[in-house]
Amino acid sequence: MTTEPAFVAAIDQGTTSSRCIVFDRRGGIVSVAQREHRQIFPRPGWVEHDAEEIWANVVQVVEEALDLADLPRTRLAAVGITNQRETTLVWDRATGRPVHNAITWQDTRTDELVRELGGAVGQDRFRERCGLPLATYFSGPKLRWLLRTVPGLAERADRGEVLFGTMDSWLIWKLTGGLHITDVTNASRTMLMNLATLDWDDAILAEFGVPRAALPEIRPSSAVYGTATGVLDGVPVAAALGDQHAALFGQTAFSPGDIKSTYGTGSFLLLNTGESIVQSGHGLLTTVGYQIAGQRAVYALEGSIAVTGSLVQWFRDKLGLINSAAEIETLARTVADNGGCYIVPAFSGLFAPYWRSEARGVITGLTGYVDKGHLARAALEATAWQTREVMDAMRADTALDVGALRVDGGMTANNLLMQLLADTLDVPVTRPTVAETTCLGAAYAAGLAVGYWPDLDALRANWHKAAEWAPAIDPATRARGHRKWRKAVERSFDWTDEDDLPQPA
Ligand SMILES: Nc1ncnc2c1ncn2[C@@H]1O[C@H](COP(=O)(O)OP(=O)(O)O)[C@@H](O)[C@H]1O
Ligand SMILES: O=P(O)(O)OC[C@H](O)CO
Question: Does the keyword section mention Transferase (predicted)?
Fold first, then answer.
């Protein structure tokens, strides 16, 4: 029996669960294990995670995935990490204990602090250096909140006694027994990293009141950081990427103009812009796509959409119109079109390209003719139109020829949605054979770092199209739909008022 390392593992530490997948050399899935963790809601708008619980889950899913594959850890050539982005943790350097629960990316407790940091100049004050608008979404404001709020923490951070990290850093620290590292993609979501130098930006650090002593070393996404101890004893820890960046890598979107969209609870489009740092004039984020050790970073433009799959969950859990997410397709297929109805799911404002926190959801175009089938269809169309607006922004920001859209994520099981996307975008939509592109991307980056895969071409050769949808509606129908969608979006604006009561979590 051979004992050569012949597999690569990926750990995906997501918003609702942690997973481990073992892959073979063709990028095929050998085993999967997954565990959910608690969502902690201390107050309306606050969402925390217990980092110790997450670590315990990670250990369990790694053990389970190895057991299921019937593999000892010695058969792993490397492990790669991918993670929910922006979620912020501070822990004690000496004890390794978190000083506070992790503050997640959806948490809006820094609303006021963000307005204060923006001052008269507003949300784009730091954009040129870090690629991001000032928003509660990113790690920097969350870290500032912790340093200001937890008694004695700022002084301890100055003395280097406590460490900041996103979930990649936490897992690398735990896996390696004490290396304090992050990768360029995760660092690019903090607001604290300068996109051009790929180092922490001293001027921003000073404004946010963050000492360098608390920050991890920034490394490429694909590089050997160290060797694991404990559950993966002896296995090289060789990659880290934010989950959306990992999906870009897993889709082998390595050339400028390549674009992927991941359809889960929300949706995230990333467009590879090569070595160019493209500043968006149309509401997109500039971010690092990935960096391979010894090479220059590859940048990306990102369009983040807050609500897509969660609208389907709302149909199921709050309206009771369907029993499962998949049933939305059956219901939407009972009608030929949306019956004039449009849904803008601005449940907590609108992200890209609008960034309107005061917007709220609307259902518009209602007549007595509209039935639940039309509503279901409008819900799917909302995902398509939101994607279209992000792609339009990408086209406006770059001269890149955006070809087919590579899709992945839970919603891509919906074939009607895939056709609606192709019709709305007027580009082909392709779905790969391996839908787990996030884990696959982390595995690819780790395998590349240890020579398990020789180069990007070997990874490209692993990508196979499972299905493709071509645009099939006439331009006049598309244009009419677009016009109506824009009118519907405008009706969602300016909804919240100063004296609105906070909504319970
Ligand atoms: N057949 C389907 N049609 C439409 N939406 C779906 C379908 N299957 C799953 N979803 C939606 O996809 C989301 C789950 O996708 P997943 O990739 O697991 O998300 P995440 O990684 O964000 O948890 C849920 O919001 C669910 O409502
Ligand atoms: O864990 P997910 O899949 O919900 O992704 C979260 C994103 O990384 C947030 O930016």
Answer: yes
pLDDT at 198 over 50: yes
Query: In terms of Cα–Cα distance, which of 228, 240, 229, 247 is closest to 293?
Result: 240
In a domain, 436, yes or no: no
Q: Which residue, among 171, 173, 180, 236, has the nearest Cα to 443 in the 3D structure? A: 236
What average pLDDT does range 371-387 have in this prediction? 98
pTM confidence score: 0.92
Query: Does 111 fall in a domain?
Result: yes
CA of 285 relative to ligand 1 center, distance in Å: 24
Å from CA of 263 to ligand 1 middle:
7
Pocket test residue of 13, 32, 36, 312 for ligand 1, highest count of atoms within 8 A of CB = 312
Interface predicted TM-score (ipTM): 0.96
Distance CA 488, CA 485 (A): 5
Whose alpha carbon is nearest atom 1 of ligand 1? Answer: 326
Q: Are 144 and 192 in contact (CB under 8 A)?
A: no
Atom of ligand 2 nearest to the CA of 264: 3
Ligand 2 atom at minimum distance from 85 CA: 8
For the CA of 262, the nearest atom of ligand 2: 3
For residue 359, is pLDDT > 90?
A: no
Instruction: For residue 318, count CB atoms less than 10 angstroms from its CB and return exposed for 0-12, middle for 13-18, buried for 19 or more.
Output: exposed
Q: Is 87 in the pocket of ligand 2 (CB under 6 A)?
A: no
Parallel, antiparallel or unpaired: strands 162-165 and 222-227: unpaired
In a domain, 425, yes or no: no
Residue set of the binding site for sn-glycerol 3-phosphate: 15, 85-86, 137, 243
The H-assigned helical ranges of 263-362 are 309-317, 327-332
Residue 3 pLDDT:
63
Residue 265 is predicted with a pLDDT of 85
- Are 345 and 383 a contacting pair, CB within 8 Å? no
CATH number of the domain at 191, please.
Answer: 3.30.420.40
Q: How do residues 244-297 score in pLDDT, each as one tens digit?
A: 999 999 999 999 999 999 998 899 999 999 999 999 999 999 999 999 999 999
Residue 14 alpha carbon to ligand 2 centre in Å = 6
Q: How far is the CA of 67 from the centre of ligand 2 (A)?
A: 27
Residue 92: inside a domain: yes
Domain span at residue 69 reads: 7-252
Handedness of CA 177, 79, 448, 75 (dihedral sign): positive
Beta bridge partners of 89: 165
Q: What is the CA radius of gyration of the chain?
A: 22
- Which ligand 2 atom is the nearest neighbour of the CA of 16? 1
| First-residue to last-residue Cα distance in the chain | 54
pLDDT value for 16 = 85
3-54 pLDDT per residue, tens: 677 899 999 999 889 999 999 999 999 999 999 999 898 887 788 999 999 9
Provide the pLDDT confidence category of residue 452 given band limits of 50, 70 and 90: very high
